[in-house]
Amino acid sequence: MKRITAAVLLVLAIYTGAAGAIALVGFRDHATTADIIVVPGNTVRPDGTVSPRLQSRLDVALQLYREGLAPAIFVSGGTGREGRDEAAAMAAYLVAQGVAPRAIIQDPLGVDTGATAVNAAHYLRTHQLHSAIVATQYFHVARTTLALERSGVRVAGARHARYFELRDAYSLFREVLGYAAYLARG
Question: What is the pTM of this model?
Answer without folding.
Answer: 0.93
